[in-house]
Write a structure and sequence with these properties.
alpha/beta; Rossmann fold; 6-stranded parallel sheet; globular; binds 6-O-phosphono-alpha-D-glucopyranose
């Protein structure tokens, strides 16, 4: 086994909070497994089943915990049964209420955050949860294995794991933005230092854009001025430091801009269930007074506080005010799927999205026209149906690591859609040239952009969509994953 691995490269381990499978206890007591998709799943399948890959993840709900206890599991997945209260503090308390807020700059600072005793208690859980991952990885990894740690949930793992297993090759990838130093300083100094040194335990840190990578480098140097920066215009970039007790260590900084999976999306969006939903959605959208199909402005988001759905609705209302000629001729199709509903602020945000949509519908709607078609129940086939029908895609996050929807809609839309895109989304770096770019806080500008998008001549729209789709698929998930692995296995200059 070891020699097969050696021939193919080192064993690969992935660590993330959410794993590729989740379990539900059915009424009859049986366990039902549901498999997820996403970049890591395609990435891991690209290295093949013989590579001895292992995915370490956390049990998230009661079903998952039950599966661990009964010893039920998928080959190649190890779920950690972290105590529910520790997980809740680490995931809801720290990862989603502090780190997510810092990196997306979401605090309303007159009253929050408050870093007191409750925060310290939750931070201890975040440490324990990270330690549980580090210990499991240390136990499972073969000599010299490559470990790819994911996201803000697991920032302390690289440092902890390096102490336990200095032989491993360790990478960490941030799927979120990274806060600028002026905002990162909101965190207590010792916490900033722990986060930076936790990550610098890795051999390689990956980000979605150079904007986020540079922000991290600046935060790191602000934490400790002895950290050096090798930042040539061309060639590999790195931070040099004495972290992990080894003087003269380097942590390479790389950018891997995850792209859309064209092959999968194009095929999936033409399956029968998507066709069915297109018919249903066309019915909801209806036709303009002259009998032509109504134009569509489409958005699809998980309802995260950073997605800026409410300002999107306000911009749409502004469009209907500024350009009454669009009334009855356009529909805003908005899918806002619930996420992190354990947190009151997320639930309140979903309620606000619903309230504003209803307000627009009652102020502007007519017997034959619902201005906003809002759905909050997650349905992937219906999302693809909306992508196919999109004339305009609205992607206006306050801040976003990448935003894959911006990449997916131009690729899937039947007639080529125009993209209204926030300059604060990571995708802006790759798609900015062919999108209509907006400041996400400026609803008047966003309304103007929607009008420009709706009136864009069909030829230009199709041309732009083609270029957007090409840029969006430059780094498909499997290559995104393999590139990181290749970079990690490259020998370090001494
Ligand atoms: C977003 C982020 C990812 C993150 C994920 C976690 O999609 O872009 O960086 O891993 O949220 O979502 P969850 O539902 O597990 O909280």
């Amino acid at each position: 086994m070891a020699s097969t691995r050696a021939a193919q490269g080192a064993q690969v381990l992935v660590a993330s909070n959410r794993g590729p499978v989740s379990y539900e206890v059915r009424e009859d007591g049986s366990l039902h497994a549901r498999r997820g998709g996403g970049g890591l799943v395609s990435g891991l399948s690209a290295i093949g089943p013989d590579a001895g890959a292992l995915w370490v993840c956390s049990a998230l709900g009661d079903g998952d915990r039950e599966a661990v206890r009964r010893g039920v599991g998928e080959h190649g997945v190890r779920m950690l049964d972290i105590p529910a209260d520790v997980h809740a503090d680490a995931y809801n308390g720290i990862a989603n209420s502090v780190l997510w807020f810092v990196h997306h700059m979401l605090y309303q600072t007159p009253l929050e955050p408050v870093f007191g005793a409750e925060f310290r208690r939750q931070w201890a859980s975040y440490e324990a949860y990270n330690r549980a991952f580090a210990e499991a990885l240390a136990q499972e990894a073969a000599e010299g294995a490559a470990v790819l740690v994911q996201d803000y949930h697991l920032c302390l793992v690289p440092g902890m794991l390096r102490e336990l297993r200095p032989d491993l090759r360790i990478a960490h990838f941030s799927h979120t933005p990274w806060a600028p130093d002026a905002y990162f300083r909101i965190l207590p100094d010792d916490i900033r230092a722990q986060l930076v040194w936790g990550l610098l335990g890795a051999d390689q840190l990956g980000f979605l854009t150079w904007r986020w990578a540079t922000a991290f480098a600046e935060c790191a140097q602000a934490v400790d001025e002895s950290i050096g920066r090798e930042w040539p215009q061309q060639g590999p970039r790195a931070l040099t430091h004495g972290g992990g007790g080894t003087p003269g260590r380097r942590t390479r900084i790389g950018v891997h801009g995850l792209g859309a999976d064209a092959e999968f999306l194009r095929a999936r969006s033409h399956e029968a269930d998507v066709e069915e939903r297109i018919t249903a959605l066309r019915g909801e959208i209806g036709t303009a007074p002259d009998g032509s199909p109504r134009r569509t402005i489409v958005r699809v988001d998980r309802t995260e506080l950073s997605k800026n759905i409410v300002r999107g609705l306000l911009a749409y209302r502004q469009l209907l005010d500024d350009h009454p000629e669009w009334r009855e001729r356009v529909t805003h199709v908005a899918f806002a799927y619930p996420s992190r509903q354990d947190l009151a602020v997320y639930r309140d945000y979903t309620a606000e999205v619903q309230r504003v949509a209803e307000e627009i519908n009652s102020a502007y709607g007519t017997p034959g026209w619902t201005p906003v078609v809002l759905h909050v129940k997650d349905d992937f086939a219906r999302s693809l149906a909306a992508y196919r029908l999109a004339d305009v895609a609205l992607v206006n996050p306050i801040r976003d690591g990448m935003n894959l929807v911006a990449k997916e809609v131009p690729l899937v839309s039947d007639d080529g859609c125009a993209l209204v895109l926030s300059r604060e989304a990571g995708a802006y770096e790759e798609l900015g040239e062919d999108a209509i770019v907006v400041n996400p806080y400026d609803v008047i500008e966003t309304a103007r952009a929607l009008h420009t998008a709706l009136t864009m001549p069909q030829g230009e729209r199709a041309e732009r969509a083609k270029r957007l789709a090409a840029a969006a698929t430059a780094l498909p998930p499997a290559r995104w994953f393999l590139d990181q692995l290749t970079a990690l296995n490259e020998p370090q200059p001494s």
